[in-house]
Design a protein that fits this description.
Organism: Mangrovibacterium marinum
Keywords: 4Fe-4S, Iron, Iron-sulfur, Metal-binding
InterPro entries: 4Fe-4S_dom (IPR007202), ACDS_complex_subunit (IPR051069)
Number of helices: 3
Helix content: 10-25%
GO molecular function: 4 iron, 4 sulfur cluster binding; metal ion binding
Largest sheet: 9 strands, mixed
Distance between the termini: 21 Å
Number of strands: 9
Mean pLDDT: 86
Domain 4Fe-4S: 1-58
Order of helices and strands: HHHEEEEEEEEE
Number of domains: 2
Strand content: 25-35%
Length: 218
């Protein structure tokens, strides 16, 4: 999303539709997705936009190279389809947890938990609760962060969903993917199904630490 904003700021901003898009914002999204090119904009050919066009060319070339460099898991050596970063303005990817603790939990509290199938203890701040499901940000061990807040130990939780932004080629809704959460301390590739996608912001459900053979590159 930030990349699209940077591209948009360098476009002429006339919203003339000559490129085939409805406006410059849509054209910026098409450029980032690689489904259009700068040549489609006749206004950029004008001498007054020469510098902007040069910068845009550099940005898109750099983005294209990074998009095709797929991340690799550290612990298993598996190649992921993309890396998942936090949503804009947030500290880590969001996780939706199924919590089996009987303790009453509230927004803002810090919990200590171990995701089912993961050997690493996680610390997370609760964003919201909904019938036993928790949305959290992973914040890491409190002592390492200089955090004096108390935490609540809730034991094993099941990670049901991730929310974040995609670095790399965007998949399709309904597609099974392999992804590497940027905050994962083990560098472990996860698997899941894309259930929501807006620009490069996504929600991934049915999270699994096992990477099945049908999770192929797209």
């Amino acid at each position: 999303m930030e990349k699209t904003k940077n591209i948009l700021e360098l476009l002429p901003g006339f919203n003339c539709g000559a490129c085939g898009a409805r406006n410059c914002s849509e054209f910026a999204q098409q450029l980032q997705a690689g489904i259009s090119s700068l040549a489609a904009c006749p206004i950029l050919k004008q001498d007054r936009f020469r510098e902007n066009k040069s910068i845009l060319t550099s940005i898109l070339n750099d983005f294209s190279c990074k998009k095709h460099q797929k991340p690799q898991g550290l612990i298993d050596g598996v190649t992921a389809d993309f890396r998942l970063h936090p949503l804009p303005g947030e500290s880590s990817c969001r996780e939706t947890l199924a919590c089996f603790s009987s303790t009453k939990l509230e927004e803002g509290q810090i919990i200590r938990y171990r995701p089912l199938g993961c050997p690493i203890i996680h610390f997370g701040r609760i964003i919201s609760t909904n019938h036993g499901l928790l949305d959290v940000w992973v914040i890491g061990p409190c002592k390492l962060l200089g955090c004096d807040e108390n935490f609540i130990d809730v034991g094993i939780c099941m990670v049901l969903s991730f929310q974040g932004t995609i670095e790399g080629e965007c998949p399709r809704v309904g597609q099974t993917v392999k992804f590497l959460p940027a905050h994962c301390m083990m560098g472990k590739v996860h698997a899941g199904i894309i259930v929501q996608l807006e620009d490069n912001c996504t929600r991934i459900d049915c999270i699994d630490l096992k990477v099945w053979e049908h999770c192929r590159e797209f």
